[in-house]
Batch of 4 targets.
Target 1
Amino acid sequence: MSQITVTGGKPLVGRVDIKGAKNLVTKAMVAALLGHSASVLKDVPKISDVEVVSRLLQLHGVLITHDEDGVMHLDPSNVESARMVDIDAHAGSSRIPILFCGPLLHRLGEAFIPDLGGCHIGDRPIDFHLEVLRNFGAVIEKLPNGTRLSAPEGLKGAKVSLPYPSVGATEQVLLTSVLAEGITELSGAAIEPEIMDLIAILQKMGAVISVDTDRVIRVEGVERLEGYTHRALFDRNEAASWAAAALATQGDIFVGGARQPEMMTFLNVFRKVGGAFEIEDDGIRFYHPGGELNPVVIETDVHPGFMTDWQQPLVVALTQAKGLSIVHETVYENRFGFTDALNDMGAQIQIYRECLGGTPCRFGQRNFYHSAVISGPTALKAADIRVPDLRGGFSHMVAALAAEGTSNVSNVQLISRGYEHFLDKLAALGADFSYTE
Ligand code: EPU
């Protein structure tokens, strides 16, 4: 089990360069399955989620090669069924396999999907995905070790309505509808920038997709798609994470590759908390300008709201703001587990079942601790912590870097699911740490 021993209390200062978004790159890789020719994806980060998807694609006959740093070639000329036992070896390692369903049904007429993994931040059911696939004509059979799908009559365009604008279910509709016969109309779609980038990729491949107002996406199925060449959208979750790290450690971090348009909502909150930023052509500088930080009241939401993935790193910075901050998490029912460790380090964070925000959410009046009140500023002290999930783990690292004293953070390999060269970046920012495998 990998562990970092970190001596905190030192501002993080320097530059980190980020690549494509984990939450786009992995889906773009799956999209390559739909093409009749090879695709080229640029700015692919070396993270374990990309490795898992690469292995699953390779099991299905996709030839994957790399020529220079971050450039991936995916050749789907020989897509074939994989052995269930090989697929099953990847059970629990990622959530992306569910997105293989549509492309594999189109290419092979059948699909077997292992049981899913991903961060433990809520139940994370796949009911929307399965319902969507049934609408297209898929027949679904749950097996003890995964899910088997077939499409005896082919996949046909459908009118689909999502009860919640789920990112994954919207991607499911996109990846299934582009080659389905006829028209698909999706209402209640998620419209995150990563989804727009996936739509751009599919358009390059030959798909016909329009995004209307009010979360409606229309797709006219086509008979054939080719490969694409595409530079992935930057990882705005990683950019926001380093921004929060700069604030929490009173540091100054230039995030190369970050762009303003996809981060506007984050930038507003960052400024309200008291952080400063400068937008350059090649990235954004985030820094603590000195003085006190301010408390804020935020609700996480689907785009264009404040992303749930930004909440966890920001909470660490909010422990240093003067007064009471409130964070209402409306996307996942269980994303405040990471606050226990912060409280052990001296933070004062209380979590509540009530919706402590302007908008009552799906989780109100139920048994979910989905609102947090953070009282600050509190000095953070070193502790021994175990990383619970990707973003929570990053937050724990930031807390350890901000805290006085020496902390031991274990299970840190989880952070490499979503942050490329994490340790190298920490070193470049002047962090004082040692790493044991
Ligand atoms: N949901 C259902 N049923 C479904 C699908 C989703 O009830 O069939 C619920 C979920 O339980 C959750 C909500 O809908 O409460 C939103 O889930 P969504 O489907 O939007 O999330 P996802 O596609 O599983 C992606 C990212 C997450 C990110 C969310 C929200 C990937 C691989 N993951 O998850 O990223 O938080 O969208 O933007 O793209 C992360 O990067 O740390 C991360 C968790």
Target 2
Amino acid sequence: MKINHLGIATKGIKEALKFWEDALGLENVHTEVVADQKVRVAMLPIGEIRIELLEPTSEDSPIQKFLEKRGGGIHHIAIEVENIEEALAKLKREGMRLIDEKPRIGAEDCLVAFVHPSSANGVLLELVQSKK
Ligand code: ZN
């Protein structure tokens, strides 16, 4: 297992890139709208992982709710797994609370599923299985 990316909630990616790209020097290599999750994402590689900037695309986006509550910040940690179905089944067997019982399509057509923060010490955890 390894960390795939860190998700950071922003009010606007364009504004956020003034820090992450212009000032810090990372490069935004990919931007897309993930309709299923009502977010626009920007991916900035850093070492072996990426920073994923998230921007809400609608008022009822989960990111919008997060921004209203906390004003931005680290939203989730994404862990790359070999087999997401197996990983979800194991977590369920261990009695862990899942947000997604079944994988969904995430950014770049990866399979993703979220584990509830109440089972992961307050951290929203995303499982990612890369497209083979
Ligand atoms: Zn993510």
Target 3
Amino acid sequence: MAAQNQAVATLRWRDGRLEMIDQRVLPAQFEYRAYRSADETAEGIRSMVVRGAPAIGCAAAYGVALEALRLRNTSVAEFSAGMEKAFEVLAASRPTAVNLFWALKRMRARWDGRAVGAIANTLLAEAHEVLAEDIRINRAMGAFGAALLSDGARVLTHCNAGALATAGHGTALGVIRSAVEAGKRISVIADETRPFLQGARLTAWEMVQENIPVTLITDNMAGHMMSLGDFDAVVVGTDRVAANGDVANKIGTDMVAVLARRHNIPFYVACPLSTIDLSIPDGSAIPIEERAVEEVTGFRDCQWAAQGVSVRNPAFDVTPAELVTGLITENGVVHQPNRDKLEALFSKR
Ligand code: MRU
């Protein structure tokens, strides 16, 4: 079924199952896939049916709840062993987005080793809360970020940090949506985002659905267009921010940040507090996922690279804090982020 002005619920709970939009087939097809266990949910995260840091966190929370529901009539020993396995398989699904580990820690604290019975419903309620809270946070970030964009701003974004990457509204695209809701005329430049094409397929789709003006470019056009004065700001999302303010995001983000600094364009990162990892001193300690070479040598059934060529496919890169004009969080904007400012941000909670 082709999507037509479809309200985006990236994840939803239906008939005792988790349903997630299959983001691998958008925009040609709009369809939900159903998940009944932690194993299935982990596979949905790994294969990128669901992607984007906050959405991965929500999916993981539901994965834990699904497993508790599935095992609720088993023995205490079986339940505990099954739950431990669920946490393990979900934690191994993707390494970079810290929201995954944040959500698992939150679910584990709820479970607390307790056995069977009512705990399954408690875990499901917690997963619902993770989802609802994500939308509230994105709206708060959106309001802070919208104030940074002037009327008429042309905003470059990389990858997809939209409703599809979250429970709804989005982080970077949430900032844009909130600015539009506030009456500002914003136009978006979406770069294609090789190799998985989240910009061309997902960001462009979201913006077209809502009639927010959007122009698609390939990744290698950004520098030229910045030199022409075509962008007023860059706003991106992130998968993990280290304690010193270094930002991991989709591969290619660092390149955009370097260009933005060269051309005096502000570079903002929309970032819920759940994406800040104070346990990691700087970006060099952030695990960078390497994905299948087939994502680089072709797309779906079409293979274009020379057979036998050696290939690298790091899925994320790290933008140093010094290139970040501001981190937009639900607690406010942190200009020129550093360790002291990030620690202070958490004490405001
Ligand atoms: O590999 P993906 O598609 O999961 O990467 C997503 C991104 O890099 C997003 O920019 C990031 O998760 C921020 S999502 C609000």
Target 4
Amino acid sequence: MDINETIQSLRETLNEWSYQYYVLDQPTVSDFEYDKKLRELEQLEEAHPELITPDSPTQRVGGQAISAFQQVIHEVPLQSLQDVFSEEELAAFDQRIRENSEAVSYVVEPKVDGLSVALEYVDGVFVRGATRGDGAVGEDVTENLRTVRSIPMRLEHAPHRLIVRGECYISRENFQKLNDERDLAGETLFANPRNAAAGSLRQLDPKVAAKRRLDCIIFNIQLSDGSQFDTDSAALDYLETLKFKVIPHPVRDTLSEVSQWIAQLGDEREQYPFDIDGAVVKLNRLAERSVLGETSKFPRWAVAWKYPPEQKPTKLLDIVVQVGRTGVLTPKAVVEAVRLAGTTVTNATLHNQDFITEKDIRIGDTVIVQKAGEIIPQVVSVDASKRHEDSNPYFLPSTCPVCGAPVERDEDGVAMRCTGAECPAQLVRHLVHFASRDAMDIEGLGPAVVKALVDAGLVKTPADLYQLTAEEVAGLERMGKKSAQNLIKALEKSKSNDLSRLLCAFGIRQVGSRAAQTLSREFQTLDRLMGAAAEELTVVDDIGSVTAEFIVKWFASSQSQHLIEALREAGLNFRSTEEKAGDALKGLTFVLTGTLSQMTRSEAKKRIEQAGGKVSGSVSKKTSYVVAGEEAGSKLTKAQALGLTILSEQQLLEMLG
Ligand code: AMP
């Protein structure tokens, strides 16, 4: 045998084994044997790269990534199907058919819930595969489809040109595996096998698509030169001989037989390896199909029976409450394990308190669960006839199950939210808000750094930020020494922020930066604000009774008090820098330099601020006055250079009155 023949024979063997495994589901050799043969072929192809062809079994792992998909104009459009939802609609369809055709028989097929594709072969070689798109124009996903093991890359005894149509899908089993892997990797989960298949088929990198274990089942010949068939079922039988994976396609003669089959498929659809969302009924005789023709959207000779989402009764064992990142409490039903739409279900969504109240869902109830396209099924209703006498209506807890802080109904009236200032479930969000520009404005403390700090266990409350050391921060991933030092500096700087920033940073409901500024100016110190009753608060501009209530409750919570004490200890400024009274120095910025003789620098700062002025650490054009004491240094020089007014200590005292 020459090398060509050896390669050919290896490919044939491997193709046959793949066919047995992926199409017939009846492997005759072990994976090990398959891999060994494949390796043999790979080695030969490595030594003779000129002999590699795109249809070789070695090319199934995915080739080069591309930047965009090419458009494909479908030679034969990929039509949609008219839906029917009732026996009456189905009977009307049957009647229309019988008015026009004689000796009617139907092909009945499961409607696979995946994505339609067209596969094109020239002289038996797979040359192109495209998505359905809008039916007229799709996308060229040839390289991704090459990785689908059940799609033959080479056909024996095929017509010169052949285009077949099928449905690409991910089996439920592979879907489960895929989501398990994504879960482990911390990636977002696919909602259902259909979404997973769609995402995979439209991967620009075929290597990714190859890992998704897509499958493809064929249900139609779009175009075939050379072969003629009288019926659809004969055409599909023929595709089976070409070794395609073909949709089950039994033939039924009467309407009642069709209905029976639909009902049976409905009962058995769980047993199929793929999601089935309907049953397709197609006129079998091809000549009669062309007489009936089509509308602009659908063929007139076929309909799709749509199954309602599958529902099952099960027992509601418990309701667990989760606290999301934004503090919203979400109730989740724990149910007795039940098989639903091909997966084992143990949890169901309950949405919120209103949902539970409206349906009067109680622990111990028999509930009907349904799965319709989402990962977690829903509770649709309660079977009240099976309810225990001693059951009680369910209410979400009034305190947070994570931190114990009071729970309050949201402004929108639906969500229940934890108000805990230190609630671990909301920590990242709290910290990001705390550091944000309107709040404490801590440079370098964005969401990524916050998350890294929390993940490393370094920060459990906003107050912990002020205990961080540069070494700890530098130890974080992607954090340089320099940026660590800068972060510590920024934190240090934020300690002297105006009280209004801290108030805003607390994240009290309805207290944004504006309200925080008004409050801090009015009450001057945090302690005075904390002591204020709701009536005192409403006297202040912009503060309504609802906000006042939120403020009073927030300060009353033990978590808030704990946080405030920790921040006090860390040395944060709890005072307003904007004086309520005294506006003698309003709008003026002072820079202090050198040693003062009659007061300390900080006393001077305080007195200036009390008179409405501001004290800045550095000289700039915005500086109104520079107060120069003994041995004034570089700041004085700079002030002179800028032509600023220089004051003596005595002059400052006179201004202060
Ligand atoms: P719809 O998307 O609801 O208009 O239904 C039409 C779609 O059903 C087609 O585009 C196909 O992708 C899909 N389909 C799945 N299985 C079959 C089948 N056995 N015969 C025809 N179409 C099918």
